[in-house]
Amino acid sequence: MDYNHQRNNLMTNSLINIANVLAERVGEKSPTQLKDMFVSNGAKKQLNYEIMFQLLMGECEKHILENNGNQVVDEFKNNILEKFSTLIQQLTPSQE
Fold first, then answer.
1. Which one of 73, 86, 91, 92 has the fewest beta carbons within 10 angstroms of its own beta carbon?
2. Could you tell me if 4 and 85 are in contact, meaning their C-beta atoms sit under 8 angstroms apart?
3. Rounded to an integer, what distance in angstroms lies between the CA atom of residue 64 and that of residue 59?
């Protein structure tokens, strides 16, 4: 599997993981545990940041997929992948 394909899979897999966790939570028949309802202010800020980042990432991915083959969008995608290549390599499990 080439490096670009791995990077694209990582973006897709992270969105799938989020969707699976949300679907699992929604499908639970039991009420939310009390300990899950109390979140510190610091944790709220972190969660807000993570949610905003995921929303931004989702919109970027959607735009890239819908406009695949567009020279400007392909350049945008390649610039993002290049800038995050070190992080992506660390997050992607090795194929050894």
1. 86
2. no
3. 9
